[in-house]
Structures are given as C-alpha cells and as structure tokens.
Amino acid sequence: MTHGPEKSDLSTVAMKLTNKIGxxxxxxxxxxxxxxxxxxxxxxRRTQSRESVSQGLDRVREAAQQKKKERFTALLxxxxxDRLMDAxxxxxxxxxxxxxxxxxxxxxxxxxxxxxxxxxxxxxxTYRALPSRRRYIPKPDGRQRPLGIAALExxxxxxxxxxxxxxxxxxxxLGFSYGFRPGRGQHDALDAxxxxxxxxxVNWILDADISGFFDSVSHEWLIRFVEHRVGDSRILRLIRKxxxxxxxxxxxxxxxxxxxxxxxxxxxxxxxVISNSRGS
Length: 280
Prior knowledge:
single chain; alpha+beta; four-stranded mixed beta sheet
C-alpha cells in the first residue's frame, strides 16, 4: 500500500497526528488514561514536570527532524531527576519485584532521596545494572515464554533514557510504523490494516516474523544501529550495561552474550531501535 519509496498511501490510512509534518499519517486512537503508577496528590506536579521534561527535549526533536544523519553527543544531561520521577510514576504499582526485591511502594517511601542518589550514580558512572529475574509464562502451544523482570531502579533509568531517545527516533519513524512506539500498539496497526484492505483493492497480505528474534539479537550490531544517531558514550555505556547484566534463573546467574530478555533490561529501548531498523 505505497505510492513510492517509503510513502504510505494516504487514502488508505486513517488519520492521526503524526510524529512529523509531511510524513504519512496513521489512524486515530483514543487518548490514553493516566498511567497506573501515578502517585496520589502529585498530579499537578507531574503535569508541570511532564511539560518541562518535554520542552527540554524540543531542541533534540528539531535537530533530529532537520538533520537525519545527526549524531547526538550530549544526551545524558537530559536524564534529570524530574525525568527519573516521571519514569518512576509511570511504573505499575503492583508489578513483581526484580532480584533486588524493591517494590514501587517501598521505593516511594524515600522517593526523593532515592532518586537523588540514583541520579548521582548515573551521572558519575557508578550506576550498576542488576540481572533480570527470569519468569516463565505459558504459550498457547504449550511451550513457555521466558520473560525478564528488571530491578526497579533499572526500570526507572531505562524509561528515562527511552524518553530521551524517543525525541530522536520518533522523528525517524514513518507514519505507518507502529512497533514499540509511545501511544501506539498492535490494535492501532490492525485498525489501519482494516481501513486499507476495505478501501483499496488488495491482492495479497504478507505476515512474517523472525523466530526467537529478541532472544538472539547481536549486541554488537544493536550498538552499531544506535551509534548511527547516538554519539554520547555515556548513553551507549548504559545500554551495554543493560545488555550484559545477565539473567537470574532459579538462583543461577546466566550471562547474556546475545539477545535481550523480553519484558525487562533494555527491551523498551532495543525493541524501538531494532523496530526502526526493520521498518516495522
């Protein structure tokens, strides 16, 4: 459903505000409700924080939009305490703890002190990523899907870094791309597909997937993809820490030489970068 190189057929895709002017648009979606992890009594503070956090990345977005080959060499300073606070607030309150045993509620008790310490560790380079805790969920075919549950502070830093990198990668995605993007999901892609096949004559549809992709993705090649746009060695170092943190499976530490544990570690980030490279 294209008119030419990487251009979506606008007549077959429902409308939504896109990530960049002039790019193909996507279907409309309902406004998402406030995340479950939002803290009571801090809605106004969170609203103001979100606005200042967003405005702080405006220059990054503009540069990413105007300079498609720009490498950003100074990004870590955008990982602020406010951004860490925002990341913490977006976490699920009842999520299972990682290997550190820390829960959302326990971390909240000394939240400002905890975030100040975490912020200092990240910027001084003393932050250490913990291994993910392995957990298995059943698949429809009877097999089990391995998931990784990250430690709470790893989740916080990962989400903060993803917010920063979104300012870059959201300007690179096309309007008909849905993989691992904020405010989009598989249901949005299905809606757009439904519009396309009902309003345009379609002869065939290809459904393809790569078996065990995230379990076997090369760390080296992933970093190379990131380096096309990210030149901040401190951000790259964080990503490497998450990739190499390993997995704790039944009390045994299993190294992660390849792949990313689905559901934790650098998954939100690596899936975004990989999806961008695959054009999903």
